[in-house]
Fold this protein.
Amino acid sequence: MARQIQKRTLETRARLVAAAEALIEQNGFESLRVEEVVLKAGTAKGTFFAHFKDKDALMDQIIGGRIDRLLDDLAEIQAPQNVPETIEALMPLCEFMTCERYVFDLIYRYSGAAAIEEIGMIATTFGRQIEIVEGWLGNAPFRKDISTGLLAEGMQAFLMQAMAVNFCALHNALSIRDRLAPYLEAWLTPKV
Amino acid sequence: MARQIQKRTLETRARLVAAAEALIEQNGFESLRVEEVVLKAGTAKGTFFAHFKDKDALMDQIIGGRIDRLLDDLAEIQAPQNVPETIEALMPLCEFMTCERYVFDLIYRYSGAAAIEEIGMIATTFGRQIEIVEGWLGNAPFRKDISTGLLAEGMQAFLMQAMAVNFCALHNALSIRDRLAPYLEAWLTPKV
DNA sequence: CCATTAAATTGACCATGGTCATTTAATAAT
DNA sequence: ATTATTAAATGACCATGGTCAATTTAATGG
């Protein structure tokens, strides 16, 4: 007989997430230790892994959740009408995604789902981001020779590239803003 | 007195690399274990870490070396004159970079150096790739409204995006080739 | 209310990358 | 040659993520 999920289960899971969030608040993402989480949540280590496939799965949920809330904001604004406005709109997302090298790497690794069954929060937000940006592009004076879908995917590629390069000591003289501007000008409004 | 590097040192290092290469040949990159490498090389574990900062540093050297050899080939060919030719030229590189998810992730993570002092093989090859592609672009009928540098960086962004998306179960219906084509057409020869 | 079954929890244990005080070997100084 | 000095190698040990057989707790049926 299909037994329903126990209240206990949800409580335990909530306690684990809450403990993790609190520790992240204190010390950031990278230094989070499973050991500390279970200690703070008052559970055994094995319980953690009964609730999350691995440590990354917890991170996917927490980080994915943050991104999703940032996308809620993006979904509400008016479509940016030029490149500087577009960049400005995307900045909060960029700032969070690059708040730690560890966070960016994890986001990148989880931006695509390895299998259909394991589409996580982060992978979902990447799809949602494309949709939102597509919506913008339908109401903005950018190139019309290619689909808004392709245009949005290209923007995502440049966004990721700008953030990745920003972590590189060889190239981090330019801010993400300044690096992104020429890319997007060339992509969205080519002058040929 | 500046003491020169002992022959012994070079030999040990060479043995470690040779052992790793052999094991990778057998079982691929991901399943390589430091324990196995030192066993095969006949050294203690500590010796490994006296020669390489960590396991990733060895991977950076081996993977970076492979990429560099592929770039040697790319440096010699004639500049591709259209998008399909360009994609074809880049395919060997793509194939190696995506031979394992683990390899691609490591490449991505090391494509930028965290600090000037730690520029590794992979980061170096990324710079070299830009240079080679820039050389191509100077001799090909693509858009001229932006610098070859920017154009080459954009190509790199699309290349990485196409490879990343290829690992995603949601989007891997298209081959890297087919995914890259519309991107590069739109980037290199915009029709506005 | 007890017996049965399934879900949830536990913690000892494992796998693996990485550290470091100690030992051994090579080179330079006398 | 002998000693002093520096480089290289060693392996016991640690840190941390992850596993799993055993136990406890909750739901279900008679």
Summary: The interface with chain B takes residues 101, 105, 108-109, 111-116, 119, 123, 127, 143-146, 150-151, 153-154, 156-158, 160-161, 164-165, 167-171, 182-183, 186-187, 190-192 of chain A (CB under 8 Å). The mean pLDDT of chain A is 95.
